Structures are given as structure tokens and as C-alpha cells.
């Protein structure tokens, strides 16, 4: 009886997951078909470009910060309209020394303050600039020279846009885990773009999201946001009725956790932050006043955590049963390797058909993500790895994050 | 023609989406387009319907497959029976050569148990029907082989195995593997496995005649019932005739013999 109920839940969850994937795909196609009344001026004359400040908040980033600052120096943007504000948030290594090495560039200002967290570093810089637009570039990321022009063009076109997110790719993947994340980030490029098309972006990621300074000031600056200030800020902007757009052509390459331990820590922080902020912004969930964001995107983001954990536990249970059968068989018959193939035993249950379709759909979304991010139309070589293993890693941090969110333990950055 | 045109339009739309999207950054709007929700629902429903259709198609193919094998076996048994009736005009060698191979019954049993494990309530009734027929065929083969053995002076070795998969027999899975192992080792051994709870009157009569208790797993060897798990050594002790049977010459066996 309980097992039968479980099977029904599996199908309901599969329907919801598939529906969401199809919904995103249809939205993506519609976004491309939508007639554009506004032509973008990616070649805006220098005189018409607004002043922009890019903050680099950093804590013990002596290894990566040089590359980050150098990529900002190479931005194709008039020197008198670009400020680069480096805020050393109480580093204990050589970060400050490295940053000060770049201080002879008139665009660059370097500050040092006591450690207080990323949001305090951002607010510190916010209080020290008059720029019309303000953005952040994490010290583990590098930005493409044309990225800022792509982003600013959107602000010029639409007054209601309060923030623009970039296209985020991975900086030189090395470990197997980073190769899998490379595929995941391609999928994220697709998602970020389509969410923006639906007016439903709810994260303005640390690597190179740019904001209208007046909106940030009006909102009261950045908050701790349960260690996810980028998510909290996006929700607050959405709550105030502004739009968050996406410019996938504004490319940023970011560093990713090389080890499983670091990855799990990062993702627990993300999921924990989402869950805790979801409680605070619960009035937006299911609320038609927030459009697609309230009706489908936020509820799905929450439900998908439950679905992920449910499927994981169920697979774990089935696998343990299989293993038990295998051991009983092994005990009696010894190890048998029977390579013969009988099509009779190929699993053709409805469940498997749906899983095949879901995987195929994800592959399509990844291809679109790669297309948006790099202009190419092919799957990354590490896609099979991603499909085979990543879905078993994700539930690990989902479960840990849910437990922590329930007990409100808080999370650390490192 | 129409379908091809639709496919062309869809492809065009996707390509347009990809090329436009990669050039123009998105200007977000917040409007809810209900048509998007509806289209996504219809597509998802279509995927589910297709999956359901495909799955039931393959299941019915499987059922048909098993039924065809059963038909074949049942024809073979009938023909053997007829041959047996006409024994005066036939030699015993013919009869022995034409008997059903134990492996044919074994394959059928494996397939049935796989289908049973796959579940699916719509399928279950059909699987039970096939299982009942299979039990009948087993009993029939068993009786016939006993008669043939008597007349033709053959010495077939039988094991009748009674199991339950209602969850009340913890050792049944293990016992099944032991018997599978024995059948692999001695291809001439005739093992007949019966679901103790199956509603087939011939089977229930057999259980009553042989006085098999519901203390499963139970093995009926040479007219005597043995209850509880019996490993290979114990069975070989109970059934010394096993040693006279020809052993399989698989690579595994030769490896074992070495």
C-alpha cells in the first residue's frame, strides 16, 4: 500500500519536473520569437555612457585578485566613467598588498576595512561612490572586455530594469568535478536567460551583476541575506516591482570549487540561503502579483528541492534492495558474469521512458545554454559525467541544507 | 506533408530563437502568458501519454512472447502424450528425444518471474493468468515424465519446489538460487517450481495429495517433503541420483573442476 502510494507520488513528481522543463523550453523559444520594438545600442557613443562603479570585495584572495583587477582594467569603457573599488574585507594574507600594487591606475581605489562579510564590503563601497550604476565582481572571476557595454545598453533602453546579470562560464575546468560544473553552468546560462525573459530572475550573482545605484540605495543597500546577499537583493528588487534582465553575451569566467568538500559547502550555502530567504519572502510564493516569478518559478524552486530529495531516497532504497538480492545470489551461486543479451529483459516501464525523455530534454537545454554562452551548438564533452553522477551529488547538499535551514544553524562561506 | 511543414516551422522557430537570443540580451517583462502554461501542459501530457502507450505496447509484446512459448510447450506436451498413447507403435527412444527440455521450462519461469517483479497493476492479472497456465504445464510434464520413465525404464530426476512470494518466506529467494544453480550444473535435472498460493485447482490437489504444509520453502523429492532451506550439499545428499546425471560443460564448470 505504502509502496503503491510511493509510485503515484513518483509519477506526480515526474509530471511536475517534466512540465517545468517543457515550460522553460517553450518560454525560451517564445522569447526568441517575440518581436523586438526596442533596438539595442550596443555601440552607444562614449559620451552617452553612464558612470559605473565595479566593486571587488575580497577576503584572502591574494591568488586570484590580480587577474580579476587586470580584466577590469581591460574593460572597453571610457576611463573617466569607470571606477574600480577594491574593498579588502579584513584579509589576513597578502590581498591588500597585491591590490595596492594596482593603485597607480587612476580608475582604481583600494580600501581596507575590518572583516564584516561581503554585504558590508559592498555597502562600504556604495557609500563612497556617485556612479549611476554599481556592480560587483568576485575576486575569483574575470570579465570579458565588452561585457560592461552589453550590460549598460540594456539599462539605457529600459528604465524599469534595475539589475542586469551576465553570462557566467567556468574558468578553465581542471578536476573532474569542475568539468561537471562546466556542464551545469551551461545549463545555468540557459536558465538565467529564460528566467529573465519571464521576468523571474531571483538571483543577481556575485560575478558581474550590475545594478542601478538609485534602486540599491532606495532598497537600503545590501543585507547579509543568510550568506546569500545576491539572492536576497534580487528578491527585494523583484518585490519592489523592478525588472532584472540578462545579457548572456556579457561573459564572465568564474572560479569553481575544485573538490567535493568545497563544492558541497558552497551549495549548502546557496540552498540554505534560498530556503531561509524563502521564509522571509514567502508572500511572493504563489502570488500572481509577481507574475511568473510568483506563480511558477519560486514555487518550483522550492518544490524541486523536495522532489530531488524524494527521488534520491527512493533510488537509494531501491539500490539497497538490489544490493541485498545480489548478495543473497552471490552467497549461493558465487559471482556470475553473464554477458548474453536478451531484449526481453530491457526495462520498458513507463517510468524509464519518462526518465529517458527528461534526460533528453536536459541535453537540449544544455545545448541551448552552450549556444547562448559561447555561440557554439554542441554538448560539452563532460556531459555524460554530468548526467550520470551530478544528480546523485545534488541531493547530498539539498538534504544537508534543509536540515540546517530547519535548525537555523547558519552557514559559513569557507 | 502537413507534419513536415510543422516540423520545418518548429525548427525555424528554434533556430531563430537561438540566433536572436545569442545576439540580443533579454528585455524582461513580467506579463504572464497563459498560452505558454497551456502549451507546456499539452506537451507534457503528450509525453506522458506516449510513454504510457509505449510501455503498454512493449508489455503486451512480452505477454505475447510468453504466451507463444507456452503454446509451444503445451503443444509439445500434447504431442508427447499422444506419442505415449501410441507407444506400441513407437520406440522409447523417440519419446525420450521428444520430451520437453528442462531448460525450456526454466527460461519460461525466469521470464515470468521477471514480469511479476516489474509490477504494474494492469499487467498483473495477465501475468497471473500466464503463471497458472505455466503451473499446469509443469504438473502435466511431471506426470507424463513419470509415466514415460516407468514404461521406458528411464530414470529422470525430479525436484518439486514450493515457494511463496507474499513476503512470508524469507528463505525462498535463496532456495530459488540454489535450485537455479543445480539446474545449471545438471541440465537433465527437472525442477518444477510452484507458487504455493496460486489459485489453480490442479496445483492445490497436488499440494493436498502430497500433503505439503505451508511451512515454506518446501521441496518434494522422491515423494518425501523437506521443509526449510536446503543448500546444494543437503540436496545432493537427499538425491544421490544427481551424481549420475551428466554435468554441464560450461566454462565455469571446467574452471571449477580445475
3D structure, described in words:
- The complex is a heterodimer of chains A (about 425) and B (about 260).
- Helices cover about 55% and strands about 15% of the residues of chain A.
- With about 425 residues, chain A is α/β, with parallel strands linked by helices.
- About 0% of the residues of chain A have low confidence.
- Chain B is α+β, with helices and mostly antiparallel strands.
- Chain B is built from 9 helices and 4 strands; from the N terminus they run H-H-H-H-H-E-H-E-H-E-E-H-H.
- Chain B has a 4-stranded mixed beta sheet with strand order 2-1-3-4, sandwiched between helices.
- Chain B is elongated and about 85 Å long.
- Chains A and B meet through helix 1, helix 5, helix 6, strand 8 and helix 10 of A and helix 1, helix 2, helix 4 and helix 6 of B.
List keywords for this structure.
heterodimer; A: 414 residues; 12 helices; B: 258 residues; alpha+beta; 4-stranded mixed beta sheet; elongated; disordered C terminus
Amino acid at each position: 500500500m505504502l509502496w503503491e502510494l510511493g509510485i503515484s507520488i513518483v509519477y506526480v513528481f515526474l509530471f511536475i519536473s517534466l512540465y517545468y522543463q517543457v515550460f522553460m523550453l517553450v518560454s525560451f523559444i517564445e522569447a526568441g520569437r517575440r518581436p523586438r520594438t526596442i533596438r539595442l545600442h550596443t555601440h552607444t557613443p562614449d559620451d552617452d555612457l553612464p558612470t559605473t562603479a565595479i566593486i571587488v570585495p575580497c577576503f584572502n584572495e591574494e591568488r586570484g585578485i590580480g587577474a580579476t583587477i587586470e580584466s577590469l582594467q581591460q574593460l572597453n569603457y571610457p576611463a573617466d566613467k569607470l571606477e574600480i573599488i577594491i574593498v579588502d574585507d579584513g584579509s589576513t594574507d597578502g590581498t591588500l598588498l597585491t591590490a595596492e600594487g594596482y593603485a597607480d591606475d587612476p580608475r582604481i581605489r583600494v580600501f581596507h576595512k575590518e572583516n564584516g562579510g561581503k554585504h558590508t564590503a559592498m555597502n562600504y563601497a556604495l557609500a563612497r561612490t556617485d556612479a549611476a550604476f554599481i556592480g560587483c565582481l568576485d575576486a575569483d572571476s574575470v570579465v570579458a572586455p565588452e561585457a560592461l557595454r552589453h550590460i549598460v545598453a540594456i539599462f539605457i533602453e529600459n528604465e524599469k530594469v534595475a539589475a542586469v546579470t551576465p553570462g557566467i562560464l567556468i574558468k578553465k575546468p581542471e578536476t573532474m568535478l569542475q568539468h561537471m560544473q562546466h556542464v551545469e553552468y551551461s545549463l545555468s546560462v540557459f536558465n538565467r536567460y529564460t528566467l529573465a525573459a519571464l521576468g523571474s530572475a531571483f538571483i543577481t550573482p556575485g560575478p558581474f551583476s550590475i545594478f542601478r545605484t538609485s534602486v540599491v540605495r532606495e532598497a537600503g543597500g545590501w543585507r547579509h541575506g543568510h550568506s546569500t546577499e545576491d539572492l536576497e537583493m534580487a528578491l527585494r528588487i523583484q518585490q519592489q516591482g523592478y525588472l532584472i534582465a540578462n545579457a548572456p553575451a556579457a561573459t564572465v569566467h568564474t572560479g569553481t570549487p575544485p573538490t567535493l568538500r568545497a563544492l558541497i559547502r558552497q551549495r549548502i550555502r546557496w540552498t540554505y540561503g534560498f530556503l531561509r530567504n524563502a521564509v522571509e519572502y514567502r508572500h511572493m510564493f504563489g502570488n500572481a502579483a509577481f507574475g511568473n516569478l510568483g506563480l511558477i518559478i519560486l514555487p518550483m524552486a522550492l518544490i524541486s528541492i523536495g522532489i530531488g530529495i524524494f527521488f534520491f531516497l527512493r533510488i537509494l532504497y531501491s539500490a539497497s534492495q538490489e544490493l541485498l538480492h545480489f548478495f543473497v545470489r552471490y552467497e549461493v551461486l558465487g559471482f556470475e558474469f553473464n554477458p548474453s543479451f536478451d531484449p526481453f529483459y530491457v526495462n520498458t516501464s513507463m517510468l524509464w521512458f519518462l526518465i529517458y525523455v527528461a534526460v533528453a530534454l536536459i541535453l537540449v537545454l544544455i545545448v541551448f545554454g552552450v549556444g547562448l554562452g559561447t555561440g557554439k551548438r554542441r554538448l560539452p564533452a563532460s556531459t555524460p559525467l554530468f548526467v550520470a553522477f551530478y544528480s546523485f551529488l545534488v541531493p547530498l547538499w539539498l538534504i544537508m541544507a534543509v536540515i540546517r535551514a530547519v535548525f537555523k544553524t547558519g552557514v559559513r562561506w569557507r | 506533408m502537413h507534419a513536415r511543414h510543422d516540423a520545418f516551422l518548429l525548427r525555424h522557430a528554434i533556430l531563430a530563437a537561438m540566433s536572436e537570443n545569442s545576439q540580443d540580451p533579454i528585455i524582461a517583462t513580467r506579463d504572464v502568458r497563459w498560452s505558454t502554461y497551456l502549451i507546456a501542459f499539452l506537451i507534457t501530457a503528450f509525453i506522458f501519454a506516449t510513454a504510457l502507450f509505449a510501455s503498454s505496447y512493449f508489455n503486451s509484446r512480452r505477454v505475447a512472447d510468453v504466451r507463444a512459448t507456452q503454446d509451444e510447450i503445451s503443444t509439445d506436451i500434447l504431442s508427447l502424450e499422444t506419442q505415449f498413447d501410441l507407444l506400441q507403435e513407437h520406440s522409447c527412444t523417440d519419446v525420450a528425444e521428444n520430451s520437453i527440455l528442462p531448460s525450456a521450462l526454466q527460461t519460461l519461469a525466469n521470464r515470468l518471474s521477471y514480469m511479476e517483479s516489474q509490477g504494474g497493476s494492469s499487467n498483473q492479472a495477465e501475468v497471473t493468468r500466464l503463471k497458472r497456465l505455466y503451473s499446469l504445464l509443469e504438473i502435466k510434464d511431471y506426470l507424463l515424465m513419470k509415466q514415460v520413465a516407468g514404461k521406458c525404464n528411464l530414470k529422470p530426476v525430479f525436484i518439486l519446489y514450493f515457494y511463496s512470494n507474499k513476503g512470508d518466506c524469507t528463505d525462498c529467494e535463496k532456495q530459488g538460487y540454489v535450485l537455479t544453480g543445480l539446474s545449471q550444473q545438471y541440465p537433465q535435472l527437472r525442477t518444477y517450481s510452484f507458487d504455493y498460493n496460486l489459485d489453480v485447482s490442479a496445483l492445490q490437489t497436488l499440494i493436498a495429495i502430497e500433503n505439503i504444509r505451508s511451512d515454506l520453502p518446501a521441496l518434494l523429492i522422491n515423494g518425501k517433503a523437506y521443509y526449510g532451506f536446503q543448500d546444494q550439499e543437503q540436496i545432493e545428499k537427499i538425491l544421490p541420483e544427481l551424481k549420475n546425471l551428466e554435468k554441464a560443460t560450461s566454462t565455469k564448470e571446467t574452471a571449477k573442476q580445475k
